[in-house]
Design brief:
Length: about 800
């Protein structure tokens, strides 16, 4: 990187200044100390902080108490649980052994732990480093030590997904990395760190798996000063000082233990949002130019943020109530860049990384009760887009009790009702927009245990006594809102503690469902925020998780097998594998009595959640029975899975939104049906489109004349639209049609016929073919395009 200065001397500077308590003086150090003191006094910070800039440590200080008694102040030498940051040590250990020639990242796990089931022959060390192994998470109900974890792995019959195809961040990967280090090195993991890792990194004060009685161990505690136990579920977790973590950061930057190539191999993933053994980072040639990793456990939260180009390192080790360390880092970076602490990172040009926290982030707690409908929330939002920072929307059934800036300072607000707001939402405007906006709220919603409500739709918060459903449309948490554009935030990353009294399980869209009444959910990838809880079971198969319904093994495997086939076909056709494991969610709607009486089904896809009213297991039974009804279920499931591409990877907007969203998914479902069940089944589906489209009394608005989303009616999007796509394929051939569908995934927002035309030309469709299709099919507004439906098979590739 030409013109960039790398602070290679930072290690020497850091090591020399850490021997005493001296810090650089000056206005920035004073401003940082004032901000952190204020955060501590407001109850937002209890922990130790080290800040270096331009290769010089400018602040190194303890704030708060060592334990919940509040009798012992923290010292700079106290050691903190750093959670997942500790995974950097075992990731480094794997690469050290690889550099020694004792293992390869392509080696299967079975080479080192031979008594594991057959799946271990498919999982490689590279999969373990990048969390693409397909291993499920640690079962907290049955695992209390290493022996329990190993026993569960030996009993594991199948992975959640084929290795290397998806990403699932969990500690079974870490557990196996550490066991492999032990088996290859011939020493236990703790001894390996103390012998081969810590000395060369300059780490002198770390403790592995601390227990009661060891001095200078900071204890975690809640906001109301209830202390965490020193409980170690799995071994190998270090407690460190800010000094030792600073030395470790310098070691990683200077490649003191592994080469730049090994570091690059750790940081290289299939998706920049996926975590690695080093968290997140970026290299420029043989220079590490960014390194960000956070970790948490109980009420501890830690952050390591390094920008070697600026010679800047931020280390925050906190122990109370899981403080929002990223929000504090934003303020610190703003001060370092001579901006007000209230300026966001995006404005201040600070070192926080777009890959890890550019997305809107929601953190906090939510509590609800299945049988009373009471909802209590305490949610903070950070990284709000500027246009959405001055207001938020919240469900009208919820009452705002308090709005603060996350540092204990009240933020004035005013509420109003907007009839044009999607779902049951009320608009709240705030007098100023701090980087963090925290909302405390409470409400009680109606319960329909008899399932006899007059209606139900996705945009409400629904309770029926057996389950609750809070969709992203229902505004169950505060969603940043732009009153001028009348647009509210959609996807967000999250870290949420959820309690549901009387629930058997709780599920947050984008994280694994968990059994019990309490759960913590986390996603670094922005998701539509949906929470669901119920009294039914969790059923896992090879390709899908089924929630809230007891489904026999035969039916669940039938559904799993179908999902696997559709995923495989879509990966080949669209050129992209599906990320995440689909979750089939059984809803008992609050108006289920009416639906059962009228035979009305209902569902929705909010990836990776696919929700069904009525029985999920009945789908499996129908698939096993075969025939036309089975083909209909295949089409339905394939359509919903198709929304991963059109609805998740790409979010259509403007006049063509419904066509691109639903018609594309329906077209894909027909292609999948043809691949799985044959031409006859696909022809019947096409005939069904033609039949439904023919019921339209008037001609459809030609696709090239569409000017608003309302022009695309329900019959248009599900029947006429996919028929048009099929006629295009018949005109241009399957190969170019596939290129066109793939091109739609990366195209700019399509708002006009001309935009669609440009995508087609870019995909290799000849102008003559496109114009012929426009003239003979599009312009007529008729479904048959002058040809019988059965003859519309693709011409030669």
């Amino acid at each position: 990187m030409n013109g960039m200065r790398y602070w290679g001397a930072i290690a020497a500077l850091g090591f020399s200044t850490l021997s005493g308590h001296a810090m650089a003086t000056g206005p920035r150090a004073a401003a940082l100390d004032a901000y952190l003191n204020h955060a501590c006094e407001a109850g937002q910070l209890n922990g130790n902080v080290l800040i270096a800039d331009h290769g010089e440590v400018i602040l190194r200080k303890a704030y708060g108490y060592a334990d919940a008694s509040r009798n012992v102040p923290l010292s700079i030498s106290h050691r903190f649980d750093i959670g997942s940051i500790g995974k950097e040590f075992d990731a480094t250990g794997i690469m050290m052994l690889a550099e020694d020639g004792r293992l390869s990242l392509s080696d299967p796990v079975s080479r080192f732990i031979p008594d594991l089931p057959p799946w271990s022959r498919a999982v490689t060390l590279n999969d373990l480093l990048h969390y693409t192994s397909g291993l499920p998470g640690i079962d907290k109900n049955t695992v209390n030590n290493d022996a329990d974890a190993l026993r569960n792995l030996r009993a594991l019959k199948q992975l959640d997904f084929p290795p290397g195809t998806q990403y699932a961040y969990n500690n079974n990967n870490t557990f196996l990395r550490r066991r492999i280090i032990e088996n290859v090195s011939g020493m236990n993991y703790s001894a390996f760190l103390k012998t081969r890792v810590f000395p060369k990194a300059g780490i002198t004060d770390a403790v592995i798996d601390p227990v009661d009685g060891i001095p200078r161990i900071a204890r975690g505690f809640t906001a109301d000063f209830k202390e965490d136990p020193l409980k170690v579920r799995l071994s190998g977790w270090p407690a460190v000082t800010v000094d030792d973590l600073f030395r470790w950061s310098n070691c990683v930057t200077r490649f003191c233990l592994i080469t730049p190539d090994s570091t690059r191999r750790i940081l290289t993933t299939g998706n920049p949002r996926w975590q690695t053994g080093f968290g997140h980072g970026e290299m420029d040639g043989d220079h590490l130019i960014r390194h960000v990793h956070d970790g948490s456990n109980y009420n501890f939260e830690a952050l390591l943020m390094a920008d070697p180009i600026k010679g800047r390192t931020l280390i925050l080790l906190t122990s109370q109530n899981r403080n929002d360390v990223y929000a504090m880092a934003d303020a610190i970076n703003a001060i370092l860049d001579n901006q007000p602490a209230g300026v966001s990172v995006a404005k201040a040009g600070a070192t926080s990384t777009p890959d890890t926290r550019a997305d809107l982030m929601a953190s906090g707690s939510l509590r609800t009760n299945l049988h009373t409908g009471v909802v209590k929330g305490d949610i903070c939002m950070t990284h709000r887009p500027e246009a959405l920072s001055g207001a938020f929307v919240l469900n009208t059934g919820l009452n705002v009790a308090k709005v603060t800036d996350g540092q204990g300072n009240a933020v004035s607000f005013d509420g109003s009702y907007g009839p044009d707001i999607d779902g049951e939402a009320r608009i709240y405007t705030v007098t100023h927009a701090p980087p963090m906006l925290c909302v405390q709220y409470v409400g009680a919603l109606p319960i329909y245990p008899a399932h006899d409500a007059p209606g139900d739709f996705k945009g409400i918060m629904a309770f029926n006594g057996d389950s609750f459903r809070f969709s992203e449309q229902s505004a169950w948490l505060p969603l940043p809102y732009d009153p001028k554009a009348r647009v509210r935030a959609g996807d967000m990353a999250y870290h949420l503690d959820v309690t549901c009294d009387d629930c058997r399980f709780i599920y947050a869209n984008g994280d694994a469902p968990l059994e019990g009444t309490e759960a913590t959910f986390h996603s670094d990838i922005a998701r539509p925020p949906m929470i669901f809880g119920g009294t039914g079971p969790i059923t896992k198969t090879a390709n899908v998780t089924i929630l809230n319904e007891s489904v026999d093994a035969t039916s669940s495997e039938a559904m799993s097998g179908l999902v696997g086939k559709v995923q495989s076909y879509y990966q080949d056709y669209m050129g992209k594998a599906m990320m995440d494991r689909p979750v089939f969610l059984r809803m008992i709607t609050i108006d289920q009595v009416r639906r059962d009486r009228t035979g009305s089904g209902w569902g929705f896809a909010t990836w990776p959640t696919i929700a069904f009213s009525g029985s999920v297991g009945k789908i499996g039974t129908t698939l096993l029975a075969g025939g036309d009804k089975a083909d209909q279920e295949i089409s339905y499931l394939a359509h919903e899975l198709g929304h991963y591409y059109f609805g998740t990877l790409v979010r259509p907007q403007g006049p063509y939104a419904w066509f691109l969203l639903e018609s594309n998914a329906e077209f894909l479902s027909m292609k999948a049906l043809r691949a799985i069940r044959g031409k006859a089944a696909a022809d019947k589906r096409v005939a069904h489109w033609a039949e439904q489209a023919a019921k339209q009394k008037e001609a459809f608005i030609p696709l090239d004349k569409v000017t608003q989303s309302g022009d695309i009616s329900e019959s248009y999007r599900y029947s006429y639209g996919p028929f048009l796509l099929l006629s295009l394929e018949q005109q241009v051939g399957e190969k170019k049609m596939r290129a066109f569908m793939r091109a739609l995934l990366t195209a700019p927002v399509i708002t006009s016929w001309e935009d669609l035309h440009r995508v087609a030309l870019g995909a290799g469709i000849r102008p003559d073919d496109w114009n012929h299709w426009q003239k003979t099919c599009v312009a007529t507004g008729k479904p048959i395009c002058g040809q019988p439906a059965a003859t519309l098979t693709p011409r030669g590739v």
